[in-house]
Amino acid sequence: MRVAMVDPSLFTGRYDDSLCAALAGEGHDVILFGRRMRATDAVKPQSYAYWARFFGLSERLRAFTGEGRAFRAVKAAEYSLDCMMGPLGRMASVDAVHVQWLPFAAADRHMLRRLQGRAALIHTVHNATPYHGDGKMAAMQGRGYRALLDQFDALIAHGEPTRDALIRQSIDPALIHVVPHPPMRLAQADVTMLGTVPDPVLPRILFFGTIRPYKGFDLLIDACIALWNAGHRFELAVAGKPFMDIAPLLDAVEQAGHKDDLVLDLGFLKEQRLDAHLRKADIIAFPYRNIDSSGAFLSALHYGKAMVASNAGMFRGLPADADGEPAVSLVEASNAHALADALLPLITSGAVRQQAGMRAKGLASRLGDWEDVAVRTAKVYEAAIRRKSGR
Predict the structure, then answer these.
(1) In the chain, where does DSSP find H-type helix?
(2) For strand 96-99 and strand 329-331, is the pairing parallel, antiparallel, or unpaired?
């Protein structure tokens, strides 16, 4: 089968790379369409093709303009014109077009309209609420997203919570296929990269990935300050690029007298650097207010570190281990006190951390693999092709 995988902004490059490689391993002819690679991208196409199809102008300007308002304006204008008039090329000469992300619904509708009828259209709904409703920019990008879903021949959800959310939005259940999101592996840090991340001197909690309001970073800061003020000794490492103003939160840590307990590595980080942070962490926190599925969580499982997460989205449905123990400590979403209570035994007991880490690592082996996902995804393509033919 000929497949065009589309992720214009490479929002989930590690996921795209893993899925494309697995589909190619099953004998399918796959092309991933994205933007120009950046230094922080670790996508290395093997057995599938890559075409830097999108954002040619804005990516060249990015080095000069940064990622401020001017860059975003150019990017939106370029993408809009591209969706309306840009050459479809090999995207239109395949059996299935699988769109991972729709970055700007007002423009995406034009591209989908032009592709409709040429190939079966499939979309993975990574989040039932586009961009988690985070702020004005998310609202602008996601306006009209729901209407786009009706243009597809098949929708993929990673779990039942997302499927149920789509049905509540009046999506035809026959259109929705559940294909789980398996664990992923980041590119590994070499000895030099490992040396750039300081070794912990106390138990270290890690928050990693982009920092956005829905991820509850403020809740983690509140929980840590409460624990520090109660006399508990530990470090908090933060590795990722902020997409919100975190200065007041960092100021609060400093005012509480714990600036030296912070390890900050802010910005877009290479996967190898994230790997280094994950290796040196003792506890990994996912205090999300809401989430469908978390690529960060699924990238961290195999490190065997103790984990704390909100009881939201995919976290609610995680299976227990063979002894019935939860693989991840779950807390009420948006509750900093509950988060602090869950972190306390992990920062005070190495034995508790070790046991929790073993449960998390065991969970990774029970959440499926990419070969199975490729087979199931190909079946979704076949269903979408049948649906297209029956229109």
Answers:
(1) 13-25, 56-65, 69-85, 105-115, 135-142, 145-149, 160-168, 191-196, 217-229, 247-255, 271-280, 295-300, 336-348, 350-364, 370-389
(2) unpaired
- pLDDT tens for 189-229 read 999 999 999 999 999 999 999 999 999 999 999 999 999 99
Rounded to whole angstroms, the Cα distance separating 293 from 271 reads 19
Q: In what order do the strands lie in the sheet with 154-157?
A: 49-54, 29-35, 2-6, 96-99, 120-124, 154-157, 176-178
Q: Supply the DSSP string of 19-41, one letter for each residue.
A: HHHHHHHTT-EEEEEEE---TT-
Sequence-separated (6 or more) residues with CB below 8 Å from residue 349: none
HSE on the CB side for 238, CA within 13 Å?
23
- Dihedral angle at the C-alpha atoms of 220, 223, 225, 228, nearest 10 degrees? -120
**Residues 306, 346: contact at Cβ < 8 Å?**
yes
Residue 278 contacts residue 269 (beta carbons within 8 Å): no
Residues 6 or more apart in contact with residue 238 via CB below 8 angstroms = 206, 207, 208, 211, 217, 262, 263, 264, 265, 266
Tell me if the pTM is above 0.85. Answer: yes
Residue 310 sits at the vertex; the CA angle it makes with 131 and 163, to the nearest 5 degrees, is 55
Binned at pLDDT 50, 70 and 90, residue 390 comes out as confident
SS3 297: helix
367 CB-side CA count, 13 A: 28
Query: What's the rounded Cα separation, in Å, for the pair 383 and 141?
Result: 29
